[in-house]
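note to self: dont lose this again. the chain is below, predicted strucutre after it. 256 aa total, dont forget to put it in the shared folder this time
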Amino acid sequence: MKTTAFKSINKKIIASINVLVLMTVTAKAQNSITVKTKVLNETISKMTMYEVKEGEQTQLRKVLSDYVVNAIASKENIMAEAFYEEKKPNILWLIERWNSKKELEKFSKKTQAKSLETLVEKSLLKPAKTYYVKDLEPLTKEQWRTTSKKEDNQLVIMLFVDAKKGTQQNFKDTYHIAMPQFRSEPGVVTYQLSEIEGDDTQFVTYEKFRSNDAFQYHLNFPPIKPVIEYLETSIKSQPFQNGLHNLIEFAPLTRE
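---
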C-alpha cells in the first residue's frame, strides 16, 4: 500500500516538474518572439557610404536618385536623401530612416533597391560602409521632411565624433542642453545628433542649413560654445574638423 502511494506521489511530482519545464520553455519562447518583434518594429536609421570608381558616378547617382524617390513615396519611410561629398565627389552617401526594420527589408526587395544592389557590386572601389545609428533627441517624420527653400543656398554637414572613453555622457548631456536652441536658429533646417550603434563613444551630427551665412551664424551662436569646448578637449584625435563632411544633395532635391 505504501509502495503504491509512493509511486502515485512520484508521478504527481514528475508531472508537476514537466508542467514547470513546459511553462519555462514557453515563457522563454514568448519573450524571444517579443524581443524579435520589438526589434523588427523599432525605427531604423541607416547611413551608407559608397566610394565609386571613376566613370561610374553618373549611373550610380541616377540609380540612387530612383531609390530615394521611391523610398520617400512609401508611407513607412521617414526620410531618404542622397549626397556626394563636396571635396570628394566620388564618395556618395545614402541616408535613410524607416518606421521599422521590417519595412526597410520589404523595400529592399523592390526593383529600385535591387537595381542599386546590382550596380554597387561593380561600381565601387571598396565595399560600401554602412552605419546604423540611434537618434538622440529624435525628430518626427514631419520635421525630417522639412526642406530648404528654392532661394536658399543649402549647406549640409556631417560631423563624425570619436569621444574619449568615459566622456561620452558629457557629450550627450552638452548636446541635450544645446539641441533645442540649435533647432530654433532661423537658418537651421534640420539638426540631428546620433550615436553609432556598436560603439557608444562614436557619434555623428547631421546639420542642414539654409546657407553658408546661416552656418557662420551657428558657429558664433553662444550655445555652441560648450560643444566646441568638448570637441577641442575630449575626442580621440584632433583637430575635430577632420571629422567634417560637406555634402551636396542630389536626391530628392525637394524644395519649398
